[in-house]
Write a sequence for this structure.
């Protein structure tokens, strides 16, 4: 029994990678383990992903690159995000490949690579329509690729883009972005045949095989979360994370007795209330107040009253077998019942990504 724990099924992560790899065929799978593996623990998930068929890793930040690069020195690692000058040094020291989309930044990376005595491997990014990082000018992308290839302090490793609407199957915008990127990729490939061309995230892998190119960068699906906010099992994915706690107390409530800050719930009939010792300090969002269910003794029970930092309360009903010490599942399977991250996301008007990323550092991650 633990106050709060996230159990991670690493076999599920490996199986999800094998599932994606089957979809990808020849194209490589790059496992995205940013944000501590979407809240699942980056190191353990990276290892499981590699066992499942991923051959590369990607992160967003320099600090993440330092952590992953130290642990997986032999595996190609890409840092996808923007970097400050100091972060360029950290990223290069970690042995990571970097993203470039501006000439001034390309020069900076070349200078820092020269100072470190080892050429930097560069992925030139095209903004084909996300409207965020990347060079929006196709000719500019090609020029940057040439400049990287010609610079003795750099190696041209990749050319890439990122989709804004791959999770919206009816979106014509996806096709527009793909079309723009195909043109850029073809030009770069004709001059530099060994360059790695990549575009797809998890959703794109399932949506359209034309997006696979040489490699896909998959995050959410490797954790068994559905990129389309539907049922991951329908896509052959296995949710890897469960979030567990226990019943710290069970108390009798008379009609009208209230639970939690602001008296946002009161017993309409005589009932029993269970107190679970975790809250928004652990990532159980306050927006779930009177708006979620948990599993105890294999049954769904409603969360009642305000979610506080360290406690939530659940209504156990007028007759209950539940006792202090019983296990509580907030995400995951218990008996015949299951609560998915997608269910909590729908209740909060957000996406599954934010649910697992939001589980705080106060919750230990342990193997299932
Ligand atoms: C996070 C991220 C990914 C992974 O996306 P998923 O939808 O989780 O598969 C891929 N590419 C970039 C640039 C990212 O930032």
């Amino acid at each position: 029994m633990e106050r709060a724990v996230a159990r991670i099924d690493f076999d599920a992560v490996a199986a999800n990678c094998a599932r994606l790899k089957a979809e990808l065929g020849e194209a490589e799978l790059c496992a995205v383990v940013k944000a501590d593996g979407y809240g699942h623990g980056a190191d353990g998930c990276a290892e499981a992903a590699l066992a499942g068929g991923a051959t590369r890793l990607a992160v967003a930040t320099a600090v993440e690159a330092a952590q992953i690069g130290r642990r997986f020195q032999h595996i190609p690692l890409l840092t996808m995000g923007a970097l400050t000058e100091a972060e360029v040094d950290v990223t290069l020291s970690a042995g990571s490949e970097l993203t470039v989309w501006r000439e001034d930044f390309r020069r900076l990376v070349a200078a820092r690579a020269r100072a470190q005595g080892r050429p930097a491997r560069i992925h030139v990014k095209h903004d084909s329509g996300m409207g965020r990082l990347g060079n929006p000018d196709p000719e500019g992308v090609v020029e940057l690729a040439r400049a990287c290839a010609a610079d003795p302090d750099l190696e041209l490793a990749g050319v890439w883009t990122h989709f804004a609407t791959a999770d919206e199957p009816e979106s014509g915008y996806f096709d527009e972005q793909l079309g723009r990127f195909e043109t850029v990729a073809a030009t770069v490939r004709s001059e530099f045949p060994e360059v790695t061309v990549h575009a797809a995230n998890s959703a794109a892998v399932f949506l359209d095989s034309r997006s696979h190119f040489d490699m896909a960068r998959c995050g959410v699906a490797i954790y068994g979360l559905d990129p389309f906010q539907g049922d991951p099992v329908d896509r052959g994915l296995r949710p890897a994370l469960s979030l567990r706690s226990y019943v710290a107390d069970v108390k009798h409530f008379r009609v009208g007795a209230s639970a939690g800050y602001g008296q946002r719930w009161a017993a309409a009939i005589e009932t029993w209330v269970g107190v679970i010792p975790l809250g928004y300090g652990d990532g159980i969002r306050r927006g779930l107040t009177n708006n979620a269910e948990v599993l105890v003794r294999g049954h769904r029970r409603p969360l009642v009253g305000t979610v506080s930092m360290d406690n939530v309360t659940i209504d156990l009903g007028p007759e209950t077998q539940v006792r202090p010490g019983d296990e509580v599942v907030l995400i995951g399977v218990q008996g015949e019942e299951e609560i998915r991250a997608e269910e909590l996301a729908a209740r909060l008007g957000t996406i599954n990504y934010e649910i697992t990323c939001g589980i705080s550092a106060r919750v230990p991650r342990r193997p299932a």
